[in-house]
Amino acid sequence: MKNRVKAIRHSFAGDSVIDFKGFMLRKYSVTLFVSTCDLKKWPILTRLVATYEYHFVWVTKYRYKVLTGDVALRVRELVRQTCEIFEIKILKGVVRQDHVPILVSAPPHMAPGEIMRRIKGRSSSKLFEEFPMLKKRYWGRHFWARGYFCVTVGQMTEEMVKQYLEHHFEPNPSDNFRTES
C-alpha cells in the first residue's frame, strides 16, 4: 500500500461569520476526496497527482520542406533538450519535412501555449544561428508558422495518436522521437 492513496480527506469547519456584500455565511465545511489510484503511473507533485498529455502539431513558415538531413536531426535534438529542461516527457514524435507532430506528457503547471512558446522559440533561434542558409529562406527570423494544433489525449484516444504517428516512423523501435527522410 506504499504507492497507493486510499482517501485523502481535508476538511475544516468554522463558526466565524463571513460578510460578503450582504451575504452572511455561517458554519462552512469543505471536504476533498481523492479516490484510490496507482501513483506509479502519475508524477507526484505537491498536493497534486496528475498527468496531462497533449498532441501538438506545428509547421514551418510557408510549409517549406526544410526539415531534412542535419536540420531535421538538430530540430529533434533541440525539442528533446527543451522538453527535458521543462520536465516534459516525449511519448512519441516525428520530424516530418514541413511539420512536427508530437505526443507529450507535461506537468500541470505548464499551459499548452507556454510549452509551444518554449519549444518553437528556442529551436527557431538556435536553427538560425547554426544554419545560415535558413536566413535566406526565412528573411523575417520566423522559422515556424504562427499557430499550432493541440488536442488533449482525453479527447482523442492515446491509441489513435500513436497509430497516426506510427506509420511515419523509421524501422528503429527503440527510438520514440525520430526524423523522416
Automatic annotation (TrEMBL):
GO biological process, one term: DNA transposition
Span of domain Transposase IS200-like: 49-168
MF (Gene Ontology): DNA binding; transposase activity
InterPro entries: Transposase_17, Transposase_17_sf
SUPFAM superfamilies in UniProt: Transposase IS200-like (SSF143422)
Record-linked NCBIfam families: transpos_IS200
Record's protein name: Transposase IS200
Species for this entry: Entotheonella factor
